[in-house]
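Notes to self after the call with IL:
- keep both proteins in one doc
- input above output, always
- annotate only the second one for now

Protein 1:
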Amino acid sequence: MQRRSLLLSLVGLVLLVGVGIGSIWWLNMRDEAQRTLVISVPPGTAVRLAAGDEIELFPQEIVLHLSEQDTLVIQNDDDETITIGPYRVAPGQRFIQHFAGPGTFDLVCSLHPSEQLRIVVKR
């Protein structure tokens, strides 16, 4: 009877350890599958743009992939508000965008001289 109890306890311990290791592996795999494109708008950007300087923070077309679970993050470290599409990003704030489906999004962008930004989301 004691032997059976010990055996059941060992089986339970092995299962518990296996579930724990499997959970850690799954979380790590999930984190690795997600990619984040972070664009930081440095201090003084608005002043430079107003002076006519061309600033290449990021291209006018950004390509993201649903299969990689890409996320776009624009961090505004400048002292002026910026515009990305219908959103205004105040100084010190970030714009975070996850995409649920593929598509092409043409947005107004105050960081480009043409004030245009295209985001292409692929499968």
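Protein 2 (the one to annotate):
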Amino acid sequence: MIPEDLRYTAEHEWVAGDGSGVVRVGITHFAQDALGDIVYVQLPEVGAEVAAGDSLGEIESTKSVSELYAPLSGVVAAWNESLVDTPEVINSDPYGVGWLLEITPNDPAAVDGLLTAGAYRELTES
């Protein structure tokens, strides 16, 4: 459950982008599985500046509340408004309709510095 065409962070976020502009961000299958049933998501407003590694919101599940971290520095371009009413889609489709937000990175090439699928697989299997 680790798509090869995405990049990953050690904090279990995925990033979809080709280095040309806006990137889409979500949490991995591993993360949603560890969280359990997701009941609430708090995300920054469109236009907010985010810095790589900084907290950018929270995901609340029936088990706990977890911080979300910005995988890249940039500006929030959009967030998945359907999560307001149906945050549980993150559990059922974390790489599809369960995406969290889109960021316009300050440095689009920074995506290449994130973990590959192979590196993320090693991280989660250790």
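Annotation: The helical segments are 29-35, 89-92, 117-125. DSSP finds three helices and nine strands in the chain.
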